[in-house]
Design a protein that fits this description.
With 194 residues, this protein is mostly helical. It has one domain (2-193). Helix content is 51%, strand content 10%. It is built from eight helices and four strands. It has a two-stranded antiparallel ribbon. A two-stranded parallel ribbon has the order 3-4. Helix 5 links the parallel strand 3 (110-112) and strand 4. Helix 1 crosses helix 4 (100-106) and helix 5 runs parallel beside helix 7.
């Protein structure tokens, strides 16, 4: 129990400092994307309520990749025509996820954890609740992401999230982050639908 507490404490410390460094270092890139995004949609940042640890709602922030009037639903349900030209590039390169460094810094999220679900994804919420997935902070990446499991399969996703949580330690925390970076740079399509 003490070991698990110390691991969680160390992971939170890493989350805080890595996200702070990331926000500072990537600020020029953020500014460039915001300016281009302003011309693309007139609203470069996207805020959406998601469920976090202990089912507390928080505002997730991303770079906007879809037209302004797109309904709030899982990415796998959205018509591809709603994705803007800039949005397509941001999704392919995963740059749309960068503002979530703010969520990690605040403690709403971790770098590694289950992807935060929407408040209206009832089936996924029920499956995650049943398996104790809401006991941890949601993350930017994790086991489901590197295995290309998305929210279109709630039961499989919840089981995968639960498996990841049970085995989580500092090694896996680093492994999931590094493997995600590797996949993005290798330009494998699996990660583009997260």
């Amino acid at each position: 129990m003490i070991k698990k507490f110390l691991i969680n404490l160390l992971i939170r410390w890493l989350d805080f400092f890595l996200s702070l460094i990331g926000l500072i270092v990537l600020l020029p890139l953020f500014i460039i994307i915001v300016v281009i995004g302003w011309f693309d949609t007139n609203s470069p940042l996207f805020f959406q309520k998601r469920l976090g640890r202990n089912q507390h709602a928080f505002l997730l922030v991303k770079f906007r990749t879809m037209a302004l009037n797109t309904n709030s639903m899982g990415t796998h349900l959205v018509n591809k025509s709603a994705i803007t030209t800039l949005g397509y590039f941001l999704r392919r390169t995963k740059l749309d996820e960068l503002p979530q460094l703010w969520n990690v810094l605040r403690g709403d999220m971790s770098f590694v954890g289950p992807r935060p679900c929407l408040l209206n994804q009832k089936k996924l919420i029920a499956e995650r609740k049943k398996r104790g997935v809401f006991k941890v902070r949601p993350g930017i990446t994790g086991l489901a992401q590197i295995q290309n499991i998305n929210m279109s399969t709630p039961t499989i996703l919840s089981k995968t999230d639960s498996k990841m949580i049970k085995k989580m330690n500092l090694f896996y925390y680093c492994y999931y982050i590094l493997f995600t970076v590797f996949i993005v740079f290798r330009k494998k399509p699996g990660l583009y639908n997260l």
